[in-house]
Amino acid sequence: KFMDERNVVINPEFIEKRIVHFGERYAGTIDALALIDGKIGVLDIKTSQAVYRDYNLQTAAYMEPLERDVKNLETRWIFRIDQNQVCLRCGTTLRTKGGREKIKIPFPRKGPVCKEEHAWSEPRGVIELKEFPFWKEDYAAFLAAKGLWEWENEFWLKRIGYAKF
């Protein structure tokens, strides 16, 4: 329903597609290349509690090698899908993922937290789509983080014949 309402079109050739940047020596797999609201970009799907800033490094790394092959590539999105339950008495949320339960008390509190068992609602879906059109600075940050990782792992990278050392 969300995809139809936002007029999201996914390019089937770019679903779970391996992206390689030989010059900078990294690779990754994009979730999808999409057309949303008339713009072509990388669509990365997350099942998290929020859209975290470090996702921008990942999606920026996809943009650089894709820009050579995809005409009119201009943006990237994080499509966050989550599910939780809310206590009908106190507003606390329950998020179950991977067999683990996380309970989060609302801040600021709007009343007392239940002293007995919570009265959980039915699970509700949470959907968020955030666009990040300016990727060049994030790409520079990605390369800096990669360089730090290479520096930290120099010993092991030499042992496997990593070309930089």
Summarize this structure briefly.
25% of the residues lie in helices and 35% in strands. It contains 4 helices and 9 strands. The chain has helices at residues 2-5, 55-69, 136-152, 154-159; strands spanning 9-10, 17-21, 26-30, 32-36, 39-46, 73-86, 93-97, 100-104, 124-131.
Please specify the SSE layout and strand pairing:
Elements (H helix, E strand, L loop, with lengths): L1 H4 L3 E2 L6 E5 L4 E5 L1 E5 L2 E8 L8 H15 L3 E14 L6 E5 L2 E5 L19 E8 L4 H17 L1 H6 L6
Parallel strand pairs: 5-6
Antiparallel strand pairs: 1-4, 2-3, 4-5, 6-7, 6-9, 7-8
Keywords for this entry:
alpha+beta; seven-stranded mixed beta sheet; 4 helices; 165 residues
Structural class: alpha+beta
Distance between the termini: 50 Å
The major sheet is characterized as:
7 strands, mixed
Radius of gyration: 20 Å
Kindly describe this structure.
Helix 2 (55-69) packs across helix 3 (136-152). The longest helix is centred in the last third of the chain and has 17 residues, at 136-152. Helices cover 25% and strands 35% of the residues. Helix 2 (55-69) links the parallel strand 5 and strand 6 (73-86). It is of the alpha+beta class. The model has no long low-confidence stretch (mean pLDDT 91). Strands 1, 4, 5, 6, 7, 8 and 9 form a seven-stranded mixed beta sheet that branches. The protein has four helices and nine strands. It has helices at 2-5, 55-69, 136-152, 154-159, and strands at 9-10, 17-21, 26-30, 32-36, 39-46, 73-86, 93-97, 100-104, 124-131.
